Amino acid sequence: MKNIAQKDYLNETTFTSKDFHTSNNVPLLVSMTLATFKESRLPLLVILTKDFFHKIWTDQLKIGIQQMLLGYSSHFCLHIWMDDLDSTEVRKWSTGLLRNDSSFRRVKYQDLQYTTDKELKEQIIALIRDNTDREAKYRNYSVQDQDALNFTDLALKSLSIKSKDTAEGSPPTSITSVPSSSSKKRKKKKNQSANQYLRGAAAFPKAKVPKETTRLRDLSLDQRDRITTLLDVGYGANWKQIGHFYQLTPAEFRVIETAGHAGQRPADCLLRLLLAKMPDLSLQDLKEKCQRILRRDVIEIIDELMGS
User: According to the UniProt record, where is the region Disordered (predicted)?
Assistant: First the structure.
């Protein structure tokens, strides 16, 4: 997996990469690194191999990793399939990775034509920059486990219909009736809220639900930061106790501590790890853990966020 930090899209581009082959816990390291890349909203290059699926898709972190890959918030995202992968093989693991839209691009390694590393780099940059004027509605959207949610196949079929109609020169086909003016306004408001979420300025728009069902992933980065700051520098840095309540392994604790030594906040790493392991983790559950360690300050923040 490579994170592409672009200082200047037209002139200077630098590549930073993460190699996971030497790690003792590949899924965990992939999950935490991908979460960091996703929050940065920088362009992302993912190199996929058959070995990737064997190591990741058979692990308990698979759902969280898949969600982040399919819902990467930057529309500059490119997947390169190595020679041991084809559409038949990928379909065995994830139909979502086969979807077609302008913000989710892929290329086979054998189709890249280059003789030097510089030429390869230029090709990759061109592919990532391709079609940058696409509309926001075609940006990456979040997809959950396709075996658990039926709407994924419907979404893919809808995208396929639109792609086919556009190629034939006819207007995109809609599978819904023409909305009224009031429904258009509601849709516009939801789209604005979604765009704010992608920038980290607001929580993801959702229907009104009982506060006990509010999930950790529904929070914006700023809201989550209010919790992690207290857990890191409050009355005693209780993030480790929270980790023990959720039965983190020694290897997972070491990864968090290593990230802390590298300048990242441990509590923030903890919540990102919990999100990867338990995408539907509720704020109520986290609140109950904080009650066990008597962190009233954190509980007050959680109550405020649950009621907002």
Answer: 164-196
